[in-house]
Design a protein that fits this description.
single chain, alpha/beta, Rossmann fold, six-stranded parallel β-sheet, 9 helices, globular
Length: 244
C-alpha cells in the first residue's frame, strides 16, 4: 500500500483564492472594465453572506465562463500563474515545506480543490503533484468552449463531502492507505476530507476546524499570509485577438 498527502489549495497551499485572482486577470487581459470584476466579486460575497452553500457559489462561478474558449483560458491561466510566481508570495511557505517533505518521503501528492484544471495543472507541475481532484467545467465538444456548467458526474463541484468521497475513490484505485496518509485544509468545508486520513493538519484559524482538531488530535500549520498585489496581464487582448 502507498501513502499519500492530500492538499487543499486556496488559503492552504497558496495565499489567495486562485479562482478570483484569475477571474480578475482574465477580465483585465480581455479588456473588460474593472467594475465588471468588482460586480462579480460582490455578487459572490453576497451569496456567501446570505448562507448559500459553497457548492452553489462554485457552480455560479463557473457560469461566468459560458462561451469562453478553453484554449484561450488555458493560455491565460499559464500566464497568470507565471506572473504570480514572478511577483512572489504565492505559496503558504509552511505548507509548501510540508509538501516537499512528503515528496522526499515518497508520498503520493494530491491536490484537492474546488478550482479547475486550467489553474491547477501549472501548480501541480510546479510542486510535483501526482494527481488533481477538482471541479471540472463542461466544454462543448464542437466549439471547445465552456458551457458554463460543470460536467455531469459524481464529486462535482469538488467542495465539502465531495472531496472526501473523491479521496476515497482515488485511494481505492491507486492502493493508497488512508490510515497512514495525511490531509491538509483551512476551512470547515475541508473537514470531511481531513477526517478520511489517519493524520490531518488544519491550516490557519477556522474556529470549527480548531474545535474539531482539538478533539481529534490534528496537527496545525499557520494560515496563509496576505497575497502580494495581483500582477497585471503581460498582454491585453483586443476583441479581434481573442483567439488562442
Amino acid at each position: 500500500m502507498t501513502r499519500a498527502a492530500f492538499f487543499d489549495v486556496d488559503h492552504t497551499l497558496t495565499t489567495s483564492v486562485g479562482l478570483f485572482r484569475f477571474l480578475s486577470y482574465w477580465y483585465a487581459a480581455t479588456g473588460r472594465p474593472p467594475h465588471e470584476y468588482v460586480r462579480a466579486r460582490q455578487r459572490f460575497k453576497a451569496m456567501t453572506a446570505t448562507g448559500i452553500r459553497r457548492e452553489e457559489t462554485n457552480r455560479a462561478y463557473f457560469s461566468l465562463y459560458a462561451g469562453a474558449d478553453r484554449a484561450l483560458i488555458d493560455r491565460l491561466a499559464q500566464d497568470w500563474f507565471t506572473a504570480e510566481l514572478t511577483a512572489g508570495g504565492h505559496f503558504n511557505e509552511p505548507v509548501l515545506a510540508a509538501l516537499h517533505d512528503h515528496r522526499a518521503a515518497g508520498d503520493v501528492i494530491v491536490l484537492v480543490s474546488g478550482s479547475f484544471p486550467a489553474l491547477l495543472e501549472p501548480l501541480a507541475d510546479q510542486v510535483g503533484a501526482h494527481h488533481i481532484l477538482c471541479s471540472e467545467p463542461e466544454t462543448d465538444p464542437v466549439t471547445d468552449t465552456y458551457t458554463g456548467r460543470l460536467v455531469h458526474r459524481p464529486h462535482q463541484p469538488m467542495i465539502g463531502r465531495a472531496k472526501a468521497d473523491a479521496v476515497r475513490l482515488l485511494a481505492a484505485a491507486h492502493r493508497i492507505d488512508l490510515g497512514t496518509s495525511t490531509a491538509y485544509g483551512d476551512h470547515v468545508s475541508d473537514a470531511p476530507m481531513l477526517e478520511t486520513t489517519g493524520r490531518a493538519v488544519r491550516v490557519g484559524c477556522d474556529p470549527t476546524l480548531r474545535e474539531l482538531g482539538a478533539r481529534s488530535g490534528w496537527g496545525y500549520l499557520p494560515g496563509a499570509p496576505d497575497p502580494h498585489p495581483l500582477p497585471a496581464p503581460a498582454v491585453r487582448l483586443t476583441p479581434e485577438r481573442l483567439v488562442p
